[in-house]
TrEMBL record:
<protein>
    <recommendedName>
        <fullName>LamG-like jellyroll fold domain-containing protein</fullName>
    </recommendedName>
</protein>
<feature type="transmembrane region" description="Helical">
    <location>
        <begin position="62"/>
        <end position="87"/>
    </location>
</feature>
<dbReference type="Pfam" id="PF13385">
    <property type="entry name" value="Laminin_G_3"/>
</dbReference>
<dbReference type="InterPro" id="IPR013320">
    <property type="entry name" value="ConA-like_dom_sf"/>
</dbReference>
<keyword id="KW-1133">Transmembrane helix</keyword>
<keyword id="KW-0472">Membrane</keyword>
<keyword id="KW-0812">Transmembrane</keyword>
């Protein structure tokens, strides 16, 4: 990744703001000159009453000041919006954009002092309470051979994994795993309780050698899992979902046998129309900058949307 890019972007923004300031200054100067010329010409008209001209001049100047103030407020708001757009973290960031091998570990930092971090923002002022959505595409080449260890896809939390199960032992908010030696997805969500209880949804019969879109959506205490736009599992959590500020870990401890593409976070619960929009776009199979092992896009097929029709 080019480390000079943030500096170049900062220089470009500064130059653009300087140009905008100069243009605004010239605009106000020309406007004032035109106003003065108009008022001078009106005052010099034969038969113009001096008191009438003076009173109109005061009113015109007052109106001009109000106009300048309104334009100034609009420009300030526009400038603040631009700064927020370029500087503040996005609400719906791609945690991994493009494709990586399932065995390629990646850690996405949440440290704001790290220039390579991708902040995951919590939902804010949502009517239904806590909301978020995670979306990813996975392609399973094989199911693995271990009968006890889960294959790690991703989790938001920590990287302290149980030596027997390979599941994060502290934080999964959420966590997505492939069950041992079977084509079953294992979704975990921590909740706030005395024992730090975890809630689990298992999605079975996930096809191999097909691209599958997996969406994990939380709205208040309702946790939904969508497969290619169709709801495949729902769980009403018994306690309040437990979020954290820890890193996002992808394909840890050997990961899984396959590929992952377009891991994305949304700071809200997506609607069914937004979910279908994500699915219709398909996976981005170009190589992610986090993975140098993928050399070509390949020829991959997609899973039929009717696959889960029997589950509805």
């Amino acid at each position: 990744m080019n480390l000079e890019q943030p500096q170049n972007q900062g220089t470009n923004i500064q130059n653009n703001m300087s140009t905008v300031n100069n243009n605004v200054s010239n605009f106000f100067t020309n406007m004032k000159q035109n106003f003065n010329t108009m008022l001078t010409g009106f005052s010099n008209e034969p038969g113009a009453n001096p008191q009438f001209s003076s009173s109109n001049t005061i009113i015109a100047k007052f109106a001009f000041l109000i106009l300048v103030f309104i334009i100034f407020v609009i420009l300030i708001n526009l400038g603040i919006s631009l700064l927020i757009y370029f500087i503040m973290p996005k609400d719906d960031p791609y945690v991994i954009k493009g494709m990586i091998q399932g065995s390629q570990p990646a850690t996405i930092s949440q440290d704001p002092n790290n220039s390579k971090s991708i902040p995951i923002l919590k939902s804010n002022n949502q009517n239904a309470g806590i909301e978020f959505t995670w979306s990813t595409w996975i392609y399973l080449d094989d199911l693995g051979t271990s009968n006890t260890k889960y294959q790690h896809i991703f989790n938001k939390g920590d990287n302290n994994y149980d030596s027997t199960t390979n599941i994060s032992s502290v934080n999964n908010a959420p966590g997505l795993y492939l069950s041992p030696a079977t084509n079953e997805l294992h979704v975990i969500m921590n909740t706030v309780s005395k024992s730090d209880a975890i809630e689990i949804i298992d999605i079975n019969n996930v096809p191999i050698k097909k691209w599958v879109n997996v969406i994990i959506r939380l709205k208040n205490t309702i946790l939904d899992v969508y497969i290619n736009g169709s709801i495949a599992g729902r769980l009403v959590l018994q306690n309040v979902p437990k979020q954290n500020y820890n890193n996002v870990y992808v394909c840890q401890n050997g990961g899984f046998t396959g590929k992952l593409a377009d891991l994305r976070y949304f700071s809200r619960a997506l609607s069914i129309f937004e979910i279908n929009s994500v699915v219709s776009k398909g996976p981005n199979t170009s190589t992610s900058e986090l993975d140098t092992t993928v050399t070509s896009k390949g020829n991959y097929s997609y899973l039929s949307n009717l696959w889960y029709a029997s589950k509805l």
